[in-house]
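P.,

For your records, the input lines for the assembly:
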Amino acid sequence: MRVTRHKRQILLFLAAILVPAGVLIGLAGRLMYQDRELGAKRAVDQRRAAVDQLRRELSSRLEAIKLQEINRLMRSPNGNRPQDSASPAVIFTARPEGDRLVLPWEGSAPDDSAAFAKHREEGEAREFAKRDDAGAVAAYRLALAAAGSPSESAEARLSLARTLSKAGKPDPAARLYQTLLDAPSDARDEQGVGYRFYAAERLLAAKREPASVLSFLRKEIDGPERLTLPELYMIRSLIGAGQKISERIAEMEQAAALAKDFARVRARVESGGGSGWIPYGPPSSEDPWLVTITPPQPPLPGLVLAVWSSKVAPPGVKLRTRVAEGDALGDAFPGLSVEWADSRALETVHQGLPAGIWIAALALVLGVAVFGGYLLLRDVNRDVRMNEVRSQFVASVSHELKTPLTAIRMFAETLAMGRSRDEHTKSEYLETIVNESERLARLVDNVLDFSKIEQGKKIYRLRPTRLEDVASSAARALQFPLAQQGFQLHLSVQEELPELQADPDAIQQAILNLLTNAMKYSGNAREIDLRLAARNGDAVIEVVDHGLGMEADERKHIFEKFYRAPSHESRLIAGTGLGLTLVAHIAKAHGGRVEVESAPGSGSTFSILIPIPKEVGVQV
Ligand code: ADP
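Structure tokens returned:
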């Protein structure tokens, strides 16, 4: 029976908890997976939208810059000096000539005017061939007077100052060099070096106010004027390498590389449809240039425009030349990719519910399912146990009824048949019949009272009662069975007790139950005490036996309905498990309680304690 019950429980557990829980976990897993998929798809869409938006933004910015540059060059087709560009993003706008790119600062120097050239050649002949410094000075002075452009006057001043210092006149020479520092930036010789830098070099060599010359050079590096590569190299040799100058040199070297590489650059731009922008710079560049080529628009020839990518990219976006990492920007920007510095395009990746919430929800559902299952199992178990207890109860009550009934019948039949003529035996038979019917009546009383208690219908009728009377009447009622089984009952009243408000029938029933238990569980002992005493304001009825006793964990349960100790010894003794339940109920109905002291093998003491009302106590 046990085994089938276990089987049923396992089946129930599987059906009610494990299977639904498994299905739930499966469903949740599937949902989670779908949620992730959706999140990833949304992220991809979002990213694509961000790239589209960036492409539009970039295109319009670059288009605006291109138009601005074209307009600027239209207004002054010859004055395309880079420093005139209105946009800080523009690196240069240059003209292609065949497969060559002419950078704006490479513009060929205008031809010298004839008068200037004549005097300059004269001066050079005197200075270098004839070693006639005075004559050279005079010739250069004439050249200065004849100079037709800032470039010519700067050249004349430089030669003049040089010969003056050779002629042993350092002061006027230094003064001339000083004025040369203010020469315009496009006054350059054919090497592309501004005359003002030669002046600075000479002043430094002559140790003339070196501090102010150095600060002049530094200002030139930081200033807006574009310096040519030879100028930058010269400054670096004069003041040493610094971050700023290295940056400028790198920029100009890159421009030179681009000019050299122009055929390839043009092929790349044209491969993208011709009007796109391509990145230009080393692959690892943090800030590649964006380069485009505009078709010729008379009077302007085609133009090559280079801008800083960092200056046209919106904040939070970095443009890169690599396509492998980052998102490609499409055909308008061949070879250009985006790196998102902020997470605006990536935010949505985790927009689906976080895994923690899924797991928590799942755990909650599982927890509820398991708890529900536990409650279900507990209820089922309780029902099963209750049924077992009931059938056991019916069996034990039937058994208890049958024993006295058999005895009564047997003795009554013997008497009826008149077999026994001996008066003494006859009266003994009769006494047994009376005694057994009393036992029957007590049993039936117990069962009826229990059922009344269960239905909440048990009524106790309290009236002034002397416990001594009740106790002696109970002892008398059991006189015959006690004597028959050889028991000695010692009734003792240790203290005079006052009359209590009590139901004497109920109290007697309780004492009888305790006394019959004492007889049942006495083992070989044959002494039972019934004592009345007063203790701490309570009237105490004590029933003491010296029999089997019980274990502590048994003691906890003996007042529960239908409880019977599981030990083998007690099992052999007939009983219903109702006696002590009733004793406890009766004690409680009188405002008292039942206490028990017991140890296995040394007997038990059951005490019913009923409080003595204060005023009664005072009267006595
Ligand atoms: P029962 O009909 O089984 O005697 P009770 O409610 O009177 O039912 O008692 C419950 C259990 O308490 C008993 O089965 C027995 O194990 C234990 N018990 C009661 N009285 C005693 C006692 N005097 N000595 C030892 N065990 C006792």
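Two observations worth noting. The mean pLDDT is 86. The longest helix spans residues 2-75.

Regards
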